[in-house]
């Protein structure tokens, strides 16, 4: 790790220079943060779980035609990814009222929304990632109208797929946050790619029968059992092998490829 050139370090991941031009190595940390890093902790094993879950989701989305930055998983904590210029917009898709929308609109947590809602936030920690409109995005040149339309269309497709994928294992997808980046390949072809990660750090996931939270809200709300909840998500998706001699699944993560 120390021999690599660090490109960027965020709250949950580190980006290193990749082995080939146009690539990066994305390292998943065990650090957990909330409320713009005002609350912090280190949760052993969280990075490995998010790496594996995000890999599985990125591969699955690629199979239905969603272009992503993911190339392959390198090990328990690292992925090889395509280098992109991140668009400074967080795209949020909401299916059920939870989090900030409840406070903003006076909704009751758990209330099903009339339809899936797409929101945009300006990716700026020091400002608290404020909610912005398409007018703000185009006026300040963060993304073009065509790029906004493309990101919105992809977010809704991702939502449809993830809702079905999680429902199949008894999990309700409440909402999720994604990011996109601009990528230019060696032939000069330009493309908008899904970037960053999709994991329990960036999704709200509730058990369909009990409404038990299986996501980062367990950390935000001091509910405990954060890595246990993430492990449950990975286990339900078939990404972790159960050890019948232990009361909880082990982190014997299955190899790359079909699962």
**Overall 3D form:** globular
Provide the CATH topology of the domain at 85-207: D-amino Acid Aminotransferase, Chain A, domain 1
What is the total tally of β strands? 14
Strand percentage lies at 25-35%
Main β sheet profile: 7 strands, antiparallel
What's the CATH architecture name of the domain at 85-207?
2-Layer Sandwich
What's the structural blueprint in terms of helices and strands?
Layout: E1 6-9, E2 13-17, E3 23-28, E4 31-34, E5 39-42, H1 46-63, E6 70-73, E7 78-82, E8 85-86, E9 89-96, H2 100-105, E10 112-122, E11 131-132, H3 134-139, H4 145-167, E12 171-184, E13 190-195, E14 203-207, H5 217-220, H6 226-236
Antiparallel strand pairs: 1-2, 2-3, 3-7, 4-5, 6-7, 8-12, 9-10, 9-12, 10-11, 12-13, 12-14
Q: Briefly, what is this?
A:
The model is unreliable at 244-259 (pLDDT under 50). The protein contains 6 helices and 14 strands. Helix content is 26%, strand content 31%.
């Amino acid at each position: 790790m120390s021999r690599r050139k660090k490109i960027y370090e965020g709250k949950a991941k580190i980006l290193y220079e990749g082995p080939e031009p146009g690539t990066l190595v994305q390292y998943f940390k065990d650090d957990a943060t909330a409320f713009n890093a005002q609350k912090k902790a280190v949760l052993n094993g969280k990075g490995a779980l998010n790496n594996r879950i995000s890999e599985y989701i990125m591969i699955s989305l690629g199979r239905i035609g969603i272009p992503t930055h993911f190339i392959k998983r390198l090990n328990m904590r690292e992925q090889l990814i395509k280098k992109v210029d991140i668009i400074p917009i967080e795209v949020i898709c909401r299916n059920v009222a939870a989090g900030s929308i409840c406070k903003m609109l006076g909704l009751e947590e758990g209330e099903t929304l009339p339809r899936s809602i797409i929101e945009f936030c300006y990716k700026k920690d020091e400002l608290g990632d404020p909610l912005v409109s398409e007018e703000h995005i185009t006026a300040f040149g963060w993304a073009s109208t065509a790029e906004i339309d493309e990101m919105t269309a992809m977010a809704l497709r991702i939502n449809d797929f993830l809702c079905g994928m999680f429902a199949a294992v008894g999990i309700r997808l409440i909402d999720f946050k994604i990011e996109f980046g601009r990528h230019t390949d060696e032939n000069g072809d330009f493309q908008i790619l899904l970037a960053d990660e999709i994991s329990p750090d960036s999704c709200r996931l509730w058990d369909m029968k009990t409404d038990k939270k299986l996501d980062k809200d367990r950390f935000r709300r001091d509910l405990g059992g954060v890595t246990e909840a993430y492990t449950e998500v990975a286990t339900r998706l078939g990404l972790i092998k159960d050890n019948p001699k232990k009361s909880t699944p082990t982190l014997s993560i299955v190899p790359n490829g079909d699962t």
